[in-house]
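Lecture 7 notes: from sequence to structure.

We start with a single chain of 234 residues. Read the sequence below before looking at the structure.
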Amino acid sequence: MFTPFADHDHSDGQLGRIFFHGNPWPAGHVITEFAWTAELRPESGLWFHLHLRTADYDAESPGLSTDEDDWRSAETWTNYRNCTLSSTYWSEYPGFLVSGFDQPTPLAELPGRTWIVDPDPGRVGSFEPAIGLYLTGHDSVIDHRITFSATDGARLRLEWTGRIALSYAGDDEFRYAFSARVQPVRLQSITAPPALPRETVEQLLADLGYPLGLEHDHGGLQQPGRYLVSPTRS
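Now the structure, written as tokens:
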């Protein structure tokens, strides 16, 4: 049986790769940071947050550049150094609801389930995005397809795709695409309203189908209500 808190084993030194299809690096980019966290909101349910950051775009090669447009120009990309795709790095992004009190999605059903987040709204500015993007400046991302799947029966793999508009350059059409794979991944922490006792938080999580043991994050003193997911209970 899988566990959402299996230890990482990145013996190759890599978390995974992300591909921005049609850009100057067809082999993609190394992911150097990844975090999967959650937020308990008593009025609605459990929300997931994802944070991903890449190495410098040209860390592995100078790229196969053309002058057709900014998307295919290595010079344009390297001016912005690397990518951050995140619902936590900036404060205004809510992440996405995975298990609601009115319609719980239990932890046991996580593998193989795909969440569609921010399906095509048409144009930039017509919706409030769940996840932020810094790519070639502060760009926009929609139509996320986020799938967790079991790898060897005990660990999880994340597959994540979406569409991008280079809104920083004034292009509000979602004409580009990305795909990423990270494995293994683990649920690292959960935040809840600081006024809620830990026992209440654990009971609410159990009601949502997430019977997780929690440990106070004594290293996160600036984040009251933040708990580490304990590997002692599943």
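The helical segments are 74-79, 198-207. Keep this in mind for problem set 3.
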